[in-house]
Amino acid sequence: MNLPIVHLDESGVGSRFPNPKTLRINTPKDDTPFPVFCKPTVIGCFSLDSNRQYIEGPGFLKFLKLPDQIDQVNFDLDSLNRLESTSDSSDSEEMVKQTNELTHLINWIHQEEKIFTSRRPDFVFYRGLMTKLLGTPYETREEWKLGAMLKNGTIYLRNIETHGSIERRLNQSQDARQKQMASWGYNFERFLLSDDPLSLPNPKELNRNECNLIFQTKLGSHHLVYAAEIDGVWLTPGSDMNPKNDPELLNKCNLVELKTTRAFPNDQMSRNFCKFNLRKWFCQSYTAGISHVIAGLRNDEGVVHKLKVYPTTKLSHLGQEWSSNVCFKFLEQFLTHVKEIEIYNIRRIKTILE
Fold first, then answer.
1. What is the Cα–Cα distance from 64 to 196, expressed in whole angstroms?
2. CA dist 316 to 135, 229, 332, Å?
3. DSSP assignment, residue 57?
4. Cβ(342)–Cβ(150) under 8 Å?
5. In terms of CB atoms within 10 Å, which of 21, 92, 107, 125 comes out highest?
């Protein structure tokens, strides 16, 4: 795989070197061993309100409330869209979100400098970027571009939109059906998540707040710190734990990810679902210590009639035509090359990888 290096000067104007360097990473083989990857541990958290303003702590953490009969539910996801005025801000919101993600994480680093400096990681980034890189060995349709900056021995990585990704986002924002289905994922969460461990979900309540956790882990020789938005926690019935009051309890909680997908004909997963969806679900969840993925199986009208609970560790076994070993070995090799380039070449100069 070829990754041309583009350098940015301090003014932010990009210019290729006369002889662009090429980063070559051979895609690992399917039988490659899984690299060392320590279980991610939570070292901090912050919340974002509906205006995406930074708030210290897990104030907007949510709690999963599964119905007694997960095989017999009736969640009309589209009905929630009819209860509120339609907003055409999805495109701008997504652009602002991508721009500010690393800013929020750096804000946490400034707030919790002692915690951060005691760990001094090799890399800092957002989980979404990590998921993108993990899928690279199998991704043939979407390109990516990353920005990298070295400071005090730590390399900060961020996603940069490409012309292709901008075009896809604009097309999706103008496609009524795509916007409708995108809203179903958020609406699904409103049926299953509550703001308090003792209260039930209120689907009619519009709530765009979110909680982000800061994780540390080690992949091969690389020490990583990254943030991830978390859908919710799944407390044991009868538990009196409330990580909102004591964030240190977050490492004892089961974290969950909520997804929606079209119901499987005859309860049989399609090849494309096993090839694409399960890979993305696994990479996104495993890196954040998610214990279970809760899937809402919907029809074409956006009505969920059945829930499926998938342990994250089993997703890679259900997948087809991809290997978690390859994904994580590729990421380890990629970070090794980036570290060599950053430390040797740039110091204070920003770099773009694509």
1. 10
2. 13, 22, 18
3. S
4. yes
5. 125
What is the overall mean pLDDT for the chain? 86
> Which single residue is written with the structure tokens 């709530």?
207
pLDDT (0 to 100) of residue 171: 82
How many other β-carbons are positioned within 10 Å of the β-carbon of residue 324? 19
State the pLDDT at residue 57. 96
Kindly report the pTM of this predicted structure: 0.88
Q: How far apart are CA 104 and CA 94, in angstroms?
A: 15
Please name the amino acid found at residue 28: P
Q: Tokens 């390399």 identify what position?
A: 155
Written as six digits, the tokens of 213 are 């956790």
Q: Please write the tens of the pLDDT for every residue from 187-227.
A: 999 999 999 999 999 999 888 899 999 999 999 999 999 99
Helices (H), the chain: 77-83, 90-111, 113-119, 127-134, 163-174, 176-192, 271-272, 278-286, 312-318, 324-341
Each residue's pLDDT tens digit, 293-339? 999 999 999 999 999 999 999 999 999 999 999 999 999 999 998 98
At 339, which amino acid appears?
A: K
Q: Which two tokens stand for residue 143?
A: 């390109």
**Among 243, 240, 260, which Cα is nearest to 251's?**
243
**HEC sequence for 104-153:** HHHHHHHHCHHHHHHHCCCEEEEHHHHHHHHCHHHCCCCCCEEEEEEECC
Whole-number pLDDT of residue 14: 34
Q: Considering just the CA atoms, what is the radius of gyration of the chain in Å?
A: 21
Residue 30 in tokens: 């399917």
- What is the enclosing helix (H) or strand (E) of 156? strand 154-160
Rounded CA separation 158/173 (Å): 23
Nearest to 351 by CA among 1, 17, 2, 100: 17
Which of 188, 203, 222 is closest to 298 using CA atoms?
188
Q: How far is CA 278 from CA 18, 133, 275, 321, in A?
A: 42, 16, 6, 11
Dump the DSSP string for 299-323: -TTSEEEEEEEEEHHHHHHH--S--
